[in-house]
Amino acid sequence: MSSTFPRLMLEHAARRPDAAALRVKEFGIWQTTTWAQLAGLVQALAHGLAQAGLKRGDHLVVIGDNRPRLYAAMLATQALGGVPVPLYQDAVGAEFVFPITNAEIRFAIVEDQEQVDKLLEIRPQCPVLTNIWFDDPRGLRNYDEPGLDSLDNLLAAGSAAAKADPRWFDEEVAKAQPQDVAAMFFTSGTTGNPKGVVHTHFTLLDRAAAGARFDKLTAAEEVLAYLPPAWIGQNIFSYAQWLSCGYVVNCPESAATVMIDLKEIGPTYYFAPPRIFEGLLTSVMIRMEDAGSLKKWLFKTFMAVAKRVGPARMDGKPVALGDSLQYWLGNLFIYGPLRNTLGLSRVRVAYTAGEAIGPDLFTFYRSIGINLKQLYGSTETAVFVCLQPDHEVKADTVGVPIDGVEIKLAPNGELLVKSPGLLKEYYKNPAATAEVLTADGWYHTGDAGFLDATGHLKIIDRAKDVGRIAGGPNDGAMFAPKYVENKLKFFPFIKEAVAFGDRREKVCAFINIDFDAVGNWAERRNLPYAGYTDLAAKPEVLALIQDCVQQVNADLAQDQLLAGSQISRFLVLHKELDADDGEMTRTRKVKRGFIGEKYEVLVDALYAGKSEQFIETAVKFEDGRSGSVSATLKIVDAKTLPAVQHAA
Fold first, then answer.
1. What integer pLDDT is reported at residue 354 of this predicted model?
2. Could you tell me which CATH number the domain at 485-637 has?
3. Range(s) for CATH 3.40.50.12780 in the chain?
4. H/E element holding 110?
5. CA triplet 564, 568, 569: central angle to 5 degrees?
6. Per CATH, is 5-266 categorized as 3.30.230.10?
7. pTM above the 0.85 mark?
8. For residues 179 and 98, what is the distance between their CA atoms, to the nearest angstrom?
9. Nearest Cα to 426, choosing from 379, 473, 470, 384?
10. Any bridge partners for residue 615, and if so which?
11. Which residues have CB under 8 Å from 178's CB, separation 6+?
12. 636, 423, 448: which is closest to 550 by C-alpha?
């Protein structure tokens, strides 16, 4: 891919000026921006930013939800040779300090008052930050801060400059080269400070084009952009591939309206991490629990048909005539309406990544006719490393290497990748860069995995997290915490899990219940509760979770390699794990080490054989206040099973 982001935007504007490029829902109405309008917006913003002092190589922070004018701001920055740095809009102000100081950022374009307030709060710690522009002026009328202004005013100044010198913008765009830095993404940082992953126009666009060829994407696709733009997965699907293919990106009105907007748009190309698919299925199951007996019977009957027939149909395999007829009826009464309810009735290709997805959850979506597939990649690889081809989809693999990618395994089982999409470097961190990039171009992923007999990649866990049981009957057995956690999280009643066991004689776990799913379960049983902490401590809820844990143990017993990872004891935490409390990253990955230290008294109680333990924990509320939550947590034993010996 020998182009740049702004050049691709201008090419679309020249070839198809009146075609829709972006849509955003405002006050319940979808507003369309055409490619020609987008080009005009980007040109005006580029002139305005240049007048404000943005120079080639400068970094500019972008913070907010997916919004057309924020996308235009990134394109305008790239047109000037600058580097957009998207940050997570749900982060607290203190989390912005390191990226802004590390990248010496002078300019910020943000969505609204919430983000302005965060930046003004940390400004004393970031004196280099001189200019802040906001897209949404609501609540900001009376703000009087140096360098704070509206995007409208920046656009007005830029528009006047563009009229005075109409050729300047095209000349600036022409200066950029594919190997120039195009964007920087800060990793979520499960340990220590986040690292700035530097990508060029070439690395991002090459992988975007490779993914588009793999799934035959065209300009006719419809995409819903609802995940954080700071996450490279969202950036690839709704920015790099958008400009590579020229399809339409739709921005929801708010996080609260995503499900409604999803149904209205009916995307053809959809991407979501497993937690989104888990949440969708949980909402369906909750509704079915409240349905009448006939609907329940129809759902149960036809879902059994779907489970038996659906995956084979999706894989293009022949299906018996009787089964085909039953599936057709199921599609009429259950699967079709269900896909419509989920907003996925038009999906041609759907992907999940970021975490492993439970095989039953994965099979559920494929069985009802949704072409859900898995991919493997990371921020450092510009996402696309392995993808699952149509008709070659397995629940326990992440696909095959795509165009340009080579993979090999290190002696310790770690996966190494060579790809045109590899990061240029970690910003101002040559030591970290040298740790992950070898002199001959191989990237250390940090993941443990292997290729199966058909050439599909299977990921077990993070290489550093794969441990061994020490002592007891399972001494020396492999312990893969993420593998265990993902099995637990398949159950709709379990939202998060943290497993411990490395260099210990048995595996124990913390569990977070899914408040909505368990709350609904409790209400149908007339079980009163006064909030999360109270519900999580109910004996009936502990018995419910114990049953889930023991089902996972029965499943693990079937796998001789991981049978030693069965959970012996667990507790249900008194609070939900939260990124604001430092327990998770902004991409909702648990910080296992941090959690183990923070709740050391609970870990010790699990392994000491105690039946309960008191804990008091400091928390941050959504409105910024601090407080504490305390409870005496019951510790529950779970039945473990001997490993099943399979015939050779």
1. 73
2. 3.30.300.30
3. 5-266
4. strand 107-110
5. 145
6. no
7. no
8. 26
9. 379
10. 631
11. 1, 2, 3, 4, 200, 201, 202, 205
12. 636
